[in-house]
Amino acid sequence: MNMTPDLKHALVTGATGFTGGQLARTLRANGHTVRALVRRVDAPAAQALEALGISLVEGDVADAAAVDRAVAGTSHVFHIAAVYRSANHPDAYYRAVNRDSVSHIIEAARRHGVDRIVHCSTCGVHGDVAEIPATETTAFNPGDIYQRSKLEGEMIAQQAIGEGVPISIVRPTGIYGPGDTRFLKLFKTIENRTFRMFGRGDIAYHMSYVDDLVRGFILCGTHPDAVGETFLIGSDSYTTLNGLVDEIADVLDVPPVRGHIPIAPLLAAATLCEIGCKPFGIDPPLHRRRVAFFTKARAFSIEKAQRMLGYTPQVGLREGLERTAAWYRAEGYLRPAKKSLAA
């Protein structure tokens, strides 16, 4: 089997999302032939990909037949698609997307002789880490259905690695950058001074700028030493939640956040929200998985990726936050930047 394969024709799942989309566009900009598996080819995000020369296959990653159609004829598969934290999805849906799709990808790759699979897992499989910084060998400790289903999918990939399937596994840290809206609420509430720090805010938090993460994915798809390995990918340093909030406030040129509120009332409110919304199939505005933002430590070592792959993050936290804030402003999500007196 070719262990240093040319990246001739890549399939990207999750390409209409933030991370998968950035990966697909980068691969195409680098001259590669790219295909995307999308749920609807007429969706605006899918049409935007097609306009860049990315071919589309309609289907769902939970559908083995659709995955087979998408994989046929490709040399590399980047499996980025996932369902993230949303309380209105049943556990079975998480497992269909985050676990069962991995089996579909692997089976199709075997049938069609794919050179390399890059499977996107999550640093969340380690849960609330006690070891600072955590490494790829730190014990698993998933704390919710998203993390459990991602771990189950990763275990399927690990089993296939043992059977000789050329797979690399990536566990990204908190992904952000222009185009992301997951951190938008944090920026907006800091800007309008409604953000409240629940708990002490001294837990570790590790970010991953999307362009750096994409470089990590591509390295895992092309470097000979990546086969059969698992890598934590993120920035080269971590901060605390207090530090992240302070940095965002400084980037936005607003006063720093002051004061801390006990976490217990927030957790109780989240529990009541979930109980009240679940019978109606409504995604609650607050749920326990979001409370974990304030309580679970996330700090990881990327030394393995640096040593084995030559992975080197290019964008520091301050620059990444500035780029993200600039995109939010350009999209009208945040107020325009204040003009300097010199201007």
Automatic annotation (TrEMBL):
It comes from the Bacteria. SUPFAM superfamilies: NAD(P)-binding Rossmann-fold domains. Pfam families: Epimerase (PF01370). GO terms for cellular component: cytoplasm. Gene3D superfamilies: NAD(P)-binding Rossmann-like Domain (3.40.50.720). Residues 10-234 form the NAD-dependent epimerase/dehydratase domain. Signal peptide: none annotated. One of its GO terms (molecular function) is aldehyde dehydrogenase (NAD+) activity. InterPro entries: Epimerase_deHydtase, NAD(P)-bd_dom_sf, NAD(P)-dependent_oxidoreduct. This is NAD-dependent epimerase/dehydratase domain-containing protein. It comes from Roseivivax halodurans JCM 10272. The lineage of its organism: Bacteria, Pseudomonadati, Pseudomonadota, Alphaproteobacteria, Rhodobacterales.
